[in-house]
Specification:
The protein has 12 helices and 12 strands. By secondary structure, the chain is an alpha/beta fold. Helix 3 links the parallel strand 7 and strand 8. It is globular and about 55 Å long.
Length: 353
Amino acid sequence: MRSAKPSARPVVTRRHGRVLAGCTFVIVSTALKVLATTSHAEATKALTATPLLKLAGFPSRTVCYKQVGDCKIHADIYRRDTTPRRPAIVWIHGGALISGNRANLHPWQLQRYLDAGFNVISIDYRLAPETKLKFILEDLRDAFRWVRSHGPELAGIDRERIGVVGHSAGGYLALMSGVCVRPRPNAIVAFYGYGDIAGDWYSRPDPFYSQKPAVAKAEALAAVGRSILSETTAPERFRFYLYCRQNGRWPDEVAGHDPITEPKAFDRFCPLRNVSKKYPPTLLLHGDQDTDVPYEQSALMARELERQRVEHLFLTMTNRGHGFDGGRRAAEDPVIQQTFDHVLAFLRQHTVR
């Protein structure tokens, strides 16, 4: 495997592949490495991000796609014009399922999706630990059900041409959409996502986060509440996440099960354990210096997709960490822009007729 220079075209190793829109896509598996640099700061920024789209002033239509008790769960619809039957992207924010909201989509990325001919529906979902994973996945299913039933009228989309894009925990939910959403999306794009939530990386104290000052249990619990919520930018919730990572408590607190004593309880929650030949075409992107979500998580997912002969593309971002596409300079970074060329080409291949 060779690595491309930042200014060079990415080098792709291919098997049984074909070239579309200037990019090589592979029926079985592909590895692509891009040389770049970043810092770990993006990992924490992702959890406490400012609602970027609201700051940028992008026009949108906000709808309530679901209500649970007093909690209204919203989605924002973005479309470039009134042209009907556009392909759609369902965009899912990250934040460890604990924090974040639908407005965390970077404006330059939204602009690229719109310029490529997609309408975008960015969704919220109930957040942990107030809501457990079983019900978060219920929101995921209901969001797609709403998109298919109301999207053609309210978002100008073709219900038969839907891709899903997610980052970090949103990448996990994007991968889960290939397991629990019916009909399945036409394509999945997972930025630094994960396929196994019961592994040691989440169920044991994390070496990286354990280097930071310990968060006491009382402080962690004080950072979250008892009322359900579906969107937040509260920075104190990161303290709860930090406590979970320092103590290997994330699966217990988010899923409500102990991965050590109840390993089978996680079968339905792990995309890695549920890949079949019917799984949607998938694009995985991961930095090999990620200290939040291990690079191995995407590597394992790619290996299972290959085993099941599911069409996929695996892009390795060399010397990049978590959130490699974030930050103020990403929009001017030629490597990131080239990477997005691959993302858009992959989505077009599977949703544009």
